[in-house]
Every structure is written in C-alpha cells, then in structure tokens.
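Let's do one together. I've listed all components of the complex below, 732 residues spread over two lines.
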Amino acid sequence: MHTNLKRTLTKECINKVGEMVKVQGWVKKIRHLGNISFIVLRERTGELQCVLEGKLAGVIIETESVIEVIGKIVPTNNTVLGVELLIKSVKVINKNDLLPFEVNKKEVNIGLENLLNHRVLSLRHEKIASIFKIKATLEEAFREYLINMDFIRIFTPKIVSQGAEGGANVFNLNYFGKDAFLAQSPQFYKQMMVASGLEYVFEIGPVFRAEEHNSSRHLNEYISLDLEMAFIEDYEELMELETQVIKFMFEKVKEKNENELKLLNIEMPTITEIPKLKLHEAREILKNRFKKEIPEGDEYEMLVASFREKGLNEENFQNYLNTFKYGVPPHGGFAIGLERLTAKLLGLTNVREASAFPRDINRLTP
Amino acid sequence: MHTNLKRTLTKECINKVGEMVKVQGWVKKIRHLGNISFIVLRERTGELQCVLEGKLAGVIIETESVIEVIGKIVPTNNTVLGVELLIKSVKVINKNDLLPFEVNKKEVNIGLENLLNHRVLSLRHEKIASIFKIKATLEEAFREYLINMDFIRIFTPKIVSQGAEGGANVFNLNYFGKDAFLAQSPQFYKQMMVASGLEYVFEIGPVFRAEEHNSSRHLNEYISLDLEMAFIEDYEELMELETQVIKFMFEKVKEKNENELKLLNIEMPTITEIPKLKLHEAREILKNRFKKEIPEGDEYEMLVASFREKGLNEENFQNYLNTFKYGVPPHGGFAIGLERLTAKLLGLTNVREASAFPRDINRLTP
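Okay, and this is what the predicted structure of the assembly comes out as:
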C-alpha cells in the first residue's frame, strides 16, 4: 500500500511531521515495555526512535539487523530529534546473526584486535565512524587547498622498477618475469611531473613500506598526501605552505565535523606556527639522543651517497636521473601521512585505529 | 638589483604593463633576427614573448632550458597575449642537454614508445599536457558530484590476502613470509564499508590486473573511480546515477578545460541517455558473437559458482562473507576506469596515452 514511498532519511524527518514515511537502517536498540516497544533505528544521517504499539509491540528483532519501517512522524519531547515514528509496518530486510560483541554501548571496549578483525561491526559505533569521517575531511581539505593554489592532481605508478628509499624496506613482486617493487613514495615521479612543466603537482594515494617495525606508529601501507612545486625560492616557502595547508585542513574539520569532534571530545588545536628545527639542531638531537650521525654535503652528493649507502644501483634510476638533463626548475615538496595525522589529531593511541583495514607485519586481513 | 622581485606568472603579465617583472620558465623557442632576438618562454599558465636587444641579442640558450628573466612588460600587437617582455637580464637556471627529439613542433610526431620513454619531455608539448589536465578534471568532478550526493571517501588496502576477481589475473607478492596479492578492485572492501553503516562510499585509487593482454585498451595498473551505495531499490538507480555522474564530469571539463579541448580539437558529447542492454540481450551477444555462455542463477549462487570456477577457496573470503551475517542492506555500485574514459573522450588511439607512466606486460619504466 505504501510501496511507492521513497526512503526518507532520519535528518529529513524533522520536516515531515504528520506525514507517512519509509525509513531504512539498522536496529541499534530494541526495548519492550508491556504493550509498547521502541526501536532506535540508525542510519548514516542519525538515529530515529520508532514506536510499536498494539499487535506490533513485543516483536523480536536482533539488534544490528537491517529493517525497513513505514509509519507516521509525530512530535515528541522524549528524543533529541524532537520527533519519533509511529510504526505501521516493519520489515526485516536482512537479519543479523549472533554478534561477536556488543557494538551499541556508549564506549567502545572491545580491544584493538577485535575492533580490526570485525571492522564492519566496529565501524557501526558512532565514535569509530567519526574517525573516518574526519579522515575523509582532512583528505578533502588537502585537495581543496591545493586545487585553489593552482596545483594539479597527478597519478603515478605504484608498481615500480626500483624503490624510492632503498632496497631493504621495499616489497617486491614478480612482474611478468621481471623484478618489480611497490612504490615507497611517489618522490621521483612527483619530481618528473614538476619537470614536465606541470610545475605544481599533488598526489593522494597509497604507499608501501616493508618495515618490520611493529609499533603503534607504523603501517606497512598508508595514504600519503604528497605535493611538489617548481620555482621555489627556498625551503621556507615549503614550510609556510605546509603550515597553511594544515591550518586549512583543521579549519575544515572544525566546520564540517562539529558532531564528530563533540563525540570524540576533541578540541581542535589552533595553529599559529609549526615548531621548526634548524638542520644542525636536528643533527645534534640525532647525534646526542639517538647516536646517529648524518653525513654533511650538498642537496646531489648526499643523494649519490645515499644511493650507495642503501646499496642502490644508480643505473636503475636512469629515467629519474635523465630528468635532470632536460631542464629542471628548482623545486621542493613534502608529504603527510594521512593516518598518522588523523591519529595525532584525535589522540588515538594506535595509528591502526585510523586505518579501516590496516596492514602490519602480522595483519593481512580483513 | 631586482633580487627581491617575486615571480610573475605569464597570465598575470597582461595586468603589469609598464612594470618590471621576474618570470621563470622553459625556453620554448629562440629566434635571432640581426640585432634582436626573441625567446618564447613557456610555463604552466601560458607563453610569453621576451625580446632581447643590443648586447643581449644573439645569446645562445638551448631550447627547453630553464631560465629566469627580468624585464619590463610592454604592449604589442605581435602576440596573442597583447604584451611582451623587454629583457633586462636573463639567467639560465638549468641548462638543457641535447634533446632526444624536438618537443616544440605543432604536432607530436614522435611515436608512442618515445613519448612514453621520455615522459618528462613529451609532457612539455601542450597537446599532451592537455590530456592530463582533462584527466585531472574528470577525477575532480567525479569526486565533487559524489561528495555533493553525501558519499564519503574511503581508503581500502591494495595489499590483500585474496584477489577480488580470481587467481589468474592477480599479481602476487611475499608479505613478510605470507602470500599476498595486489587488489584487482576494491569491490569487497566497498561492500564492507557500506555494511559498516557508511552507506554511500567511494574510492579513487589504483587497481592492478596481471592480464597478459597487450592491447591498446589494457593497462596492468590503472585508476579506478569506484562507488557503492546502500538501500538501492533496483539497478536502474545505479544506471541513473552513473549517467548523472558522467554528465557532470563532462560538463566540468567543458567549463574548466576550454583551452585544452580547443587544442585537441575535441567537441564534447552531450549526454542524454547512455545506451542500455538487457541482461538477456548481453547474453545473446556474448553467445552469438563470442561463443561465450554465462551461467544463469541468483545474485549468491552465481557468486559461489564463480568462486569455484575461478579456483578460489571460499575460506579465504571468510571476512568478506562474514559481512553478510551482520546485517547488510541491499546495495550496488560501479566503477569507471579513469584512463579508458579519458582515452575514449579524447579519441586517443591507445589507453597508454592517458597514463603518465603506464604499466603493461613489457613496460615497467619510467
């Protein structure tokens, strides 16, 4: 009888008082109070309280099942939304089996392994979903800022003939009988695209590091927000750009993710200036605290020295080195790890929480 | 003396008549006419004619070198821009070596192998750069349309424990001693993210196909524009969405890439409706023209049959299959290959022309 109704979203219900609507979503909670039952229906725009009376009361539906409900929107003082739905009919679209854990508690207390093993379920918790909504905004804002600054998006290969940062930390694969590697960074390709005359380029894509670290800060596959720009005057320009980009990203999160920030109890930091270290200061810290000395030399000697130190064969980089024969402008760039930034911003204790399906030394699923 | 000048872009010169400016870019052409020389300087916003008189005339600079020029902008009738620059000083920032081919001819006649082997140079031709500017707009428009339709961007792993479409066409790699594969599609992960409650999701990222085809339509790594949405009523909804997305993408190209379309002599098609085939019609064509029969059955039987046909072990898909236990809404999606769409739209004879650094059965560099 109401089969022609289009789906109404929870956020639209507030404007549909008195109307018959169809809503679809997941059963977050179901409560029975004598001859009346309440379902809290959750979908991507919010939660809606639905009321079952008379014959419909007492219906048994597993939480987290997918249902379709038809009924009338009425005003109420009992919900945050200010309305609720009086159910006329309810249909289970997809019944949920027994859950491995309860996902509808106020706090997520299921442990990282459970959380990652059951992403489809753990993501249903609004606090966890919030992480990925904010992550999406950060990426979106990075892109928007650069497009407005006249950068062009590039797409560079992830299957490469040589790693960008050395032989040890690179995944290798057989490419139709040839040795190939997964890109550790789009570094060389960014530079080639700058030199091709596009000048201001950015890329957002996965990078792969075969690092055996199993720390709370490491992922073996992550999203790198990368840029490179031609005709820079000095590195201060890049530092200034990075400051402005991050400022813009944070502003965008404040604007677009007010609800998510509230849920996660995050107060966004105000960026005035990002702390800076002089190169010699960084050297001192590495030397004194970590007993690691970095060789000195110009921005080319160091490159060649680094090639040799890492056991890389210069011949394999001929395409990259050729670039420098054909008129390359002064250029520079940087990259931000999207998951690390998200994790830092939201105070997550483990970077894996900012990756829907993280890859680490032990984890290859889901 | 003018060391504090900031770089002026070619497109800004029109508003700087009478001013002393600094411009930076590549030497597209250099011509000597007695005691006067002309340099056409090219950078990302256009081309600027620069005039050398007196002592400066006759200067020898290789084309495609990177130069910095300081001088005065004056009006002229001899250039499209309506202005030219009278050079006060010129500095070669990075000298170009001998070029393997001439990149500044009106038409690109260098052959596909040369074009791909020397991307940094071939991309300097404005017709070739135009392909990548249009490609960037197509991606940008896909994203914009979906964001406006309340889709959320997701990031799913490219290193996976099992291919999405079968064992034969998948690249495998050693993942810390485990067998792993490169994702052929984000299909399973898109569905998991839909089921997690995000409902409307999209992803833009590389996919990898170890296909041995060496045709003008195949790439072994390409950018897939992917989406998946929950609570669809039927597949017509997806067909309508795809039509609208592509319409929007084409409109955006018309709006943003007028110059590039003119250069490539492309008239954008007007989309009213995309031709549709009924499933049984497609089956007939496959049967009659290609002698290939597709088994009939429902949207789950076919999945399991397909798993078996492809020699896939159902156990490896447990995480994916688990998804269907925990309340999955009806959903559907589609994907567009960015390079194929770009190539089709621009009438390129080979899809490789729409990939900056294509990967095919023989090509792993640059």
